[in-house]
Amino acid sequence: MVDAGGGENITQLPQELPQMMAAAADGLGSIAIDTTQLNMSVTDPTAWATAMNNLGMVPVGLPGQQLVSDSICVPGFDPSLNMMTGITPINPMIPGLGLVPPPPPTEVAVVKEIIHCKSCTLFPQNPNLPPPSTRERPPGCKTVFVGGLPENATEEIIQEVFEQCGDITAIRKSKKNFCHIRFAEEFMVDKAIYLSGYRMRLGSSTDKKDSGRLHVDFAQARDDFYEWECKQRMRAREERHRRKLEEDRLRPPSPPAIMHYSEHEAALLAEKLKDDSKFSEAITVLLSWIERGEVNRRSANQFYSMVQSANSHVRRLMNEKATHEQEMEEAKENFKNALTGILTQFEQIVAVFNASTRQKAWDHFSKAQRKNIDIWRKHSEELRNAQSEQLMGIRREEEMEMSDDENCDSPTKKMRVDESALAAQAYALKEENDSLRWQLDAYRNEVELLKQEKEQLFRTEENLTKDQQLQFLQQTMQGMQQEINVLTVALVNQDRENNIEKRSQGLKSEKEALLIGIISTFLHVHPFGANIEYLWSYMQQLDSKISANEIEMLLMRLPRMFKQEFTGVGATLEKRWKLCAFEGIKTT
Description:
Largest sheet: 4 strands, antiparallel
Oligomer: single chain
Strand order of the largest sheet: 1-2-6-7
Number of strands: 10
Helix content: 55-70%
């Protein structure tokens, strides 16, 4: 029987004891009790009696154990109420019943609860105690060390408890009440560390061999570290591959490979040089061959023909440039016309705003409408002025270009253009003469090679054919020599004609004759010569409109009367004009 006063005479009930203890454990897990009232661990046998007293249940005594004192229980609470009605007694101090205000919430990071398993029960440690310590987590840790296991704990029980944290790949149990558990993933280790500090009890037994305080900590395993290293290496490879792809994407494309020189490749390259679409690629190959030093006596003629083909594209490029310039001029003209049309429309819009601001129409608008019209008018006038300035700038540029063109059309410019045309013709004839000389040198080289081969070989039919070739080459050489002589004579005649034309160009006006006389007198007085600025300053006193450029062009047209000399050294270097007309008379 049970003593209503809670005394020490308690009847033992071996069959009902486990059920009562389980009910007490459920009550502790579901009802919030102030943990400050408990002065002992929940795993101590006396704690069960204390918990049942606080719940209003008559505590069932355990053999050889003293019941807790009434000072621990709720004061003034009669525990005999449950025996009268047969229902679960109610503690009036439980928060939420309205008898007393609920206690203020305590700031607890994690509230651990009792964990029930099929074969065992896990009781949390006293929250007033410090949390269990752990070592530093190894990289890639998937294995935990579990110490403090009950002596009678089997591998199946450990599997049952820790498989709630995740998939277990291996359990290595020792005879000294500890084991190592390896999980499938790293995050499962954090769940297992949560169980550190729990007291594990097998079934309802109170034997020391069936209970133990768990200590779960990180374990350093070679398999975990090896897998972590493999993952790191794989990530490093992926990062290197990603960086390489990024570098390859940003790297400029490599130039095409240049083939080695051969007669066959040279013939193909000569054809490509004649094609406009393949010229840029072919000229790169030709430049590489020349820089490599592929030019020799045997291949000089072939390289010259390729260089000549490259030179033939100059005219095409100049025509393309002229075409693009014409397109640019047309685009400028179209832009100017469009800008003129836009400016006209702006003028019309501004005229509309000005008409709206007159008194006839302005008085009929409201205050807000007048404000908006005034703002729009100012904005339109600003835009119109900007467009007008832009159009005026374009027109000023055109006027400057036209003035430059007029300067180019002056007589001195025309004479310079004629002289440049004659010089270009003479340069072209000289180039052709040089090309013929180079061909002649190439033929001479071939003749020398044939002579050497002829001396080394015996007199056979091949020698006869080589003699014929030699004769043919000599005849061609003679023909080339004649052509060179003809071209040389033509060049000399042309130079004479040019000199005659220059001599025949007399003074075009009386003003020029007067200028020549004044300049001759001035330079005769200055036997050491005078620079063009000094001459211009003197002549400007007589004619304010004359320029230094006109004086210099006039002096250049008469090389037998005036000559230009350099005097001084370094920073004092100066160009001076001298009168040489008397020297020319003495020499003639």
